[in-house]
Amino acid sequence: MMKIKTSCTAGALLLSIPAVCMGYGDSVGAAGILMFLLKVAAGGWILICVTVFFLMHKTVLWKRWVYSIALFVAPAVALAIDIGSEYLAGEAGDQTELTATRPVTVAGVTFPTGSRIVYEQTDSSRWHKRIAQAESDQVLRLGTLKIIGLRQDNSDDERFDIELAEDQSIDGWTCASAVGFWTTVSLPQHQSEPHLQSCWLAQSRIVNSITWPAYSNVSIGPDNEWSVMWERTSVRDAPPAKVFGFDVDDMNAEYDPKMQLKNWSGTVYHSAVQVGDYLFGPTETTHLTWQSANAIKIQGAGKNVRTGAPVSCVTAPTGGGLPVECAAGTH
To answer: H or E element: which one contains 217?
Structure first.
């Protein structure tokens, strides 16, 4: 009789689900349906556990209780194991920030107690990690440089990003200490002084007749050639930069080890650019390129204001003189 009664009760519950779900759907939507189904599942699981308890009526009472309770908590235990294993596993690259409870040394720099230390997981185990970043409220030293923060490059043990405590000169460039503008240096193990890899200029600087505004980015390449880049959007309310007589919104250039200009290009966004009888923009982007013969190539959507003829490229001498349209095939 017990088996028949249990089966009938389960059948009644199953038959009632569609009608009740429709009622829930009309009143509370998907969330209500989900909650109802969870309650039905929980009730069904309790019913199964009670059924198992009574089916083991020939077993010693305390064992019946143990087996039934173990069956009841099994889903919760399985869920806890699954969540716990995911937490312990994690993923390579996951980061955790902690406050140092003792001094921590990173790349030869000792960060004092209270420093903010960021640990990065190196593989699928949370127990395998490295120090990815450290910051302190105290001024520390990396060689002769005053720093308050340091990040390690995961692919290069001799390359570091540092947060300068104040504007400082590195390899002849004055680098900015503004928040968010990190400086990259290299420090081989056999050297005591770091060498500049890239930084943001703390002040404007003229390099081979080009004035680079503050917060231009300078970096050195593998052949000791320097690259400099500036974007007007990197600094709020920054005016255009005046280069070769043009107001540009961004520009980049390369210099050889002797700081001789190798190439330069600039961009003007949605502003008029006029040279002689030729007008470019103002609703389109205009591209400027320095030519080795001390001329600037101007490319974009332009026209001859005297004749009205469309033009897409002209070359203008940097020292003055009349611009000329580019020869066919040289755009």
So the answer is: strand 217-220
